[in-house]
Design brief:
The protein has 207 residues and is α/β, with parallel strands linked by helices. The protein is built from six helices and eight strands.
Length: 207
């Protein structure tokens, strides 16, 4: 599977020089089921997978400096070695004036908060997860998440309260995904100006 992904990336013109091949671990996968038009069961296969082995030795400062922006994932802050790798990548990006995008990507069962059968569970409140994610928010230029993902990042259990909480600690542009209702976008501000709270809101709808 890993070779297939690499080959497809190459066919699409993607630079794969930053991809490391793990000789001992398989590529992770998820099986998505379709129960009806509103229910999509998920089962994650991520036990000892290749990406869970990511650590600081995989992060190349020169490679980060060659990019315009990097993307970090909330899921990879659930494991200490993955978190250390992403934090190092963020440090290199900021050192070289590159942008940092943060996909909150909250899956409760990948944080050990739900079992294998709860792959489609979107939100379980956790102070520990919120604390970890809030350390990342001030370092970002773009934050993307669903209503539930912004709730875990911001702490309040309503979407707009969560948006205000995230805005209070981050000047990033925030995109709240709302499925068929489109998205809400809060334009960013200087991430060093902590006095700016509300922001300017744009309402976007999917086509």
């Amino acid at each position: 599977m890993g070779r297939y992904i690499r080959e497809q990336c190459l066919k699409e013109g993607v630079d794969v020089s930053g991809i490391h091949t793990d000789p001992n671990r398989l590529t992770s996968l998820v099986i998505l089921g379709i129960r009806d038009d509103k229910t999509f069961p998920l089962i994650f296969y991520r036990d000892n997978c290749a990406d869970s082995a990511l650590d600081e030795s995989d992060i190349d400062e020169n490679y980060i400096a060659s990019a315009s922006a990097i993307v970090v994932s909330g899921t990879h802050f659930a494991r200490p070695n993955n978190a250390a790798a992403q934090n190092l990548a963020i440090a290199f990006a900021r050192k070289h004036g590159r942008k940092v995008a943060f996909d909150i990507d909250y899956r409760p069962n990948l944080w050990g908060l739900a079992g294998h059968g709860a792959g489609e569970e979107r939100y379980i409140k956790s102070g520990e997860v919120t604390e970890r994610l809030q350390k990342i928010l001030p370092l970002c230029d773009l934050i993307v998440g669903t209503e539930e993902e912004l709730m875990i990042a911001g702490a309040p259990t309503d979407a707009y309260g969560a948006l205000k909480a995230v805005r209070a600690i981050s000047g990033a542009t925030i995109v709240m995904k709302r499925g068929p209702m489109g998205c809400l976008v809060s334009r960013g501000h200087s991430r060093f100006d902590r006095g700016w709270v509300e922001g300017t809101w744009l309402s976007c709808r999917s086509l």
